[in-house]
Design a protein that fits this description.
Number of helices: 13
Strand content: under 5%
Structural class: mainly alpha
Order of helices and strands: HHHHHHEEHHHHHHH
Largest sheet: 2 strands, antiparallel
Strand order of the largest sheet: 1-2
Shape: globular
Distance between the termini: 44 Å
Length: about 300
Amino acid sequence: MLKKVVFSILDFLLFSNLFIAVCAVAQGLITYHFLKVPADKYVLAFVFFATIGLYNFSMLLAKPKKPENSPYKRVRWIFSHYRMIISITLISILCLVPLFLLYLSIESKLLMLFTGLVAVGYNIPFLTLNNQNIGLRNIPGIKLFLIAMVWAVSSVLLPIMELQHSHQLNIAPGDTLLLVFKRFLFIAAITVPFDIRDLFQDKLYALKTIPVMLGEKRAYIFCQFLLLGYLLLLLLFRQATYPDIAAVVLNLAITGWLIFKSNVKKNEYYYFFYLDGTMLLQYLLLLLFGFLFSF
């Protein structure tokens, strides 16, 4: 009975995209942590509700003809709780409107509008070629780039732009680029295993994801190189302290191990809780190591 209740709560958190939104907030907090400035609660709230709205909207757009027959529990759960998902999505959009209009600078508004359009546009075919509807998703390798880019922009570039707009921070362009690219590499690394899981389905739909182009084994090696690149860039970032480096090294080791152990036989909890959870774990480890090294 208890196990059923626990999994019901876990399903709700994971498949309603509340958990990934918390992970997005954690990634924003990591940016503030590295910059050693107080977090902006309005920016974090915007990131939280934008993540829920975008992920739910993308899932609703990609509704299969018979979701109840889907091999994925996430798809079956979402469309068996269709009204609730619609309600959560509408609430997130309603919360986004005042945050967007009242608390973001004009530069950030333009950046978020562009990023949101690109993210939503991934699932919408807007061109016809050889009697086939195609969109951004049909461009080879674009899925990984778009996901990592959206996350890097929303969790790194948005906070930095708002801090600079309010004159709370003056960060060198080189350091900004390092932070953005570092986050890009980390998100890309944990995204590839999802594509490996969907390898057979992507081949059927002729989607040229990284695993389709490289093969499963090379895709796993590619992930490890992405994580290694992240570590090297961290060492170049001038504001990184020894506790931060130690925390990130441990997080990267755990992430690399989880990626190595992932395969098509793993259930969806492995991907949506453990792999996505490395984004939250990274912030928790930064806090823990900061506390331990303070003595």
